[in-house]
Amino acid sequence: MRTGMLGIEVSGAMAMDADALFSGMPQHLAHVALLVRDYDEAITYFVDTLGFHLLEDTPMSPTKRWVVVAPPGARESGLLLARAVGPDQEAIIGRQGGGRVFLFLRTDDFARDHEAYRARGVRFLEDPRDERYGRVVVFEDLYGNKWDLVEPR
């Protein structure tokens, strides 16, 4: 057993030392694709409601854009807002996590962000709670994807 970044003990394959496996190969997640109904609707929500920054909005074709948003302070990762194409992708909008919390938004001031989101109409699914890893509350984005707002201990 070893303790992970959030102070939770991990074992087995999770406890493998990634540096030993991939020495000399620095990596990070650049983007996570989030299926959306409409680019502009999604940009408005993430920028105006959650306070994210619009990092890029580049037309790729008459119907496709490369749209990346990220929370304030994000250095290496962002959400790629991908407009769903066709019935299979459209059916997954809002359910990319299969009903579980799908995305985790870390904050340095839980009370500030919880109150700001509440004032902007974000739908919270529970009251804030304290866990051993920090203060947390589950909310839904405009499509129904579940997020954790977390301030680590």
Question: Would you give an account of this structure?
Answer:
The protein has 153 residues and is an alpha+beta fold. The protein has 2 domains: 29-93, Roll (2,3-Dihydroxybiphenyl 1,2-Dioxygenase, domain 1), CATH 3.10.180; 95-153, Roll (2,3-Dihydroxybiphenyl 1,2-Dioxygenase, domain 1). 20% of the residues lie in helices and 35% in strands. The chain contains 4 helices and 11 strands. It has helices at 18-21, 39-49, 86-90, 110-119, and strands spanning 2-3, 9-10, 31-36, 53-59, 65-70, 78-83, 101-106, 123-124, 129-131, 134-140, 146-152. The strands form 3 sheets. Strands 7, 8, 9, 10 and 11 form a 5-stranded mixed beta sheet that branches. Strands 3-6-5-4 form a 4-stranded mixed beta sheet, covered by helices on one side. Strand 10 and strand 11 form a beta hairpin. It is globular, with a radius of gyration of 17 Å. The relative contact order is 0.16. The model has no long low-confidence stretch (mean pLDDT 90).
